[in-house]
Design goal:
single chain, 476 residues, alpha+beta
Length: 476
């Protein structure tokens, strides 16, 4: 499991930081429309100014390259963290930190480019928005059926999984060795992917409806340029939808044939890799479009001051919510727009919530799981009393050894190795209540009414002591 987790994280973050580096720190700034978020003007290409821009660009690219190298080294070190929970926390924290660090040289370059503009006496036209009235709102490239059809197919797959879960049809269990909890897992995983697919639809329409960018006094050139850009983005959104649908299908097939979490995680890694490859070709095609229309650009909209740090758009005079990014792929939001402020606030809260959850999981993983006998009950305590089992209700109790040989599959609960707490399928038996630390070899099985418990404490001695106390009370 640990190896697959590392592979997934590497597949996710390596292409991402490489893409950021290639898009934000180009080797030849003269061919780009924007230099660190500042409009690339003819004045920058004059001899004295060009030397200064060369210095800024090479310095920022060098800094970004060192950050990239350090990122790869740190990723390698993360793979060797022995404790899985700590590794998860470090990886997640690293992703947030690395994405911020990768844009630090960019923001420095943006500041220096704006300073150069002032030195050259170039003034930005803050608040100005150009519109080609002849083509306003008339250029669209997304076909509604192209984005809806794959998601309708995904919906059918999800409904089949749901019907299987509630017992109307039978998929899981067709072959020997299948477990009932897999049906619930199938419904959950396909539901998550279906939700992602549904989220793609409004994003695709939003991207297709972005106000057309004006690059020329010729409306036909504007129309062709915007049509090409929107077609490129629409193709990626449709591709993303089909990738999502394909993963749902193959995941359902695999879950009907095998109960192997490594296979599911491997499929997820392939999913992320396919999306990254799609993003790469999207960026490559966008670069070709910009190069194709560069010679036909006759209108330059200089609103650099509206772009904070070169990447964050804030313009109270612009009614648009979505604006094409100056650097990178897709669009960004206008933080001065009321909806933009709400989106930004929600994003900040989600980031804070993520770190709060990470801290909670970290504390939970480092807090010992203990069991004790108190007031006629077996108490299972892990930061709180999770289970209180009346000794008088116990029908059978057995002290077992070698907890590492237990085959555990979570139905719901907490499963951060070596701690497993909640409802699990244990050795092909579903609905079992577990309170186990697999670093402790001894464990107790309890039969209580129609439930079966698997519990142990922080040590073999604690587990054996609790067992003896319970047996003593049962024999009194």
């Amino acid at each position: 499991m640990g190896i697959i987790f590392n592979i997934i994280m590497l597949v996710l973050i390596v292409p991402t930081v490489l893409l950021i580096f290639l898009l934000e720190y180009p080797a030849n700034w003269k061919e780009k429309k924007y230099v660190y978020g500042v409009l690339n003007r003819t004045e920058f290409k004059e001899e004295k100014a060009a030397a200064r821009v060369d210095e800024i660009a090479s310095g920022c690219r060098k800094s970004a390259k060192w950050i990239l190298i350090a990122s790869f080294i740190f990723m390698g070190l993360c793979c060797f963290i022995p404790d899985f929970t700590i590794r998860l926390i470090v990886w997640t924290s690293f992703i947030f930190a690395d994405l911020v660090l990768m844009i630090v040289p960019f923001t420095k370059g943006n500041s220096e480019m704006k300073s150069l503009k002032r030195e050259l006496g170039i003034a930005s036209k803050k608040g100005v928005v150009y519109t080609d009235l002849k083509g306003a709102g008339a250029i669209h490239a997304l076909k509604k059926t192209a984005i809806i059809i794959p998601n309708l197919i995904s919906t059918v797959f999800f409904l089949v999984a749901l019907l299987n879960d509630i017992g109307v049809v039978k998929l899981v269990g067709l072959l020997p060795g299948q477990y009932p909890y897999q049906a619930r897992l199938m419904t959950g995983l396909t539901g998550v992917l279906l939700f992602i697919g549904y989220m793609i639809i409004p994003i695709a329409f939003m991207m297709d409806g972005i106000r057309n960018e004006v690059i020329s006094e010729d409306s036909d050139i504007n129309a062709n340029y915007n049509r090409a850009r929107k077609k490129n983005m629409a193709d990626f959104m449709v591709l993303f939808s089909w990738i999502n649908t394909a993963v749902i299908f193959f995941m359902m097939v695999l879950m009907c044939l095998w109960d192997n979490q490594i296979i599911y995680l491997a499929l997820y890694a392939v999913y992320m890799l396919a999306v990254m490859v799609g993003l790469f070709f999207n960026a490559k095609r966008q670069k070709q479009i910009e190069k194709r229309y560069k010679k036909e650009t006759s209108v330059e909209i200089d609103d650099d001051d509206n772009w904070l740090l070169g990447q964050i758009y804030y313009n109270p005079d612009d009614r648009r919510l979505n604006i094409t990014k100056r650097v990178g792929i897709g669009s960004t939001i206008n933080l001065a727009h009321p909806v933009g402020k709400v989106i930004a606030a929600i994003s900040v809260m989600l980031i804070i919530f993520t770190f709060v959850e990470l801290i909670y999981v970290g504390v939970l993983s480092q807090t010992p799981m203990v069991i004790r006998v108190e007031d006629g009950n077996v108490i299972c305590h892990h930061m709180k009393d999770d289970y209180s089992i009346p000794i008088s209700d116990i029908d059978d109790i057995v002290l077992e050894s070698d907890s590492g040989k237990l085959k555990l599959r979570k139905e719901n609960g907490f499963d951060m190795k070596p701690m497993y707490k909640g409802k699990f399928n244990v050795n092909d038996e579903g609905g079992c209540i577990t309170f186990l630390n697999l670093d402790t070899k001894n464990y107790i099985t309890l039969a209580v009414d129609d439930k079966k418990y698997y519990i142990n404490g922080a040590s073999d001695e604690e587990t054996e002591k609790t067992f003896n106390e319970v047996v003593e009370k049962l024999t009194d």
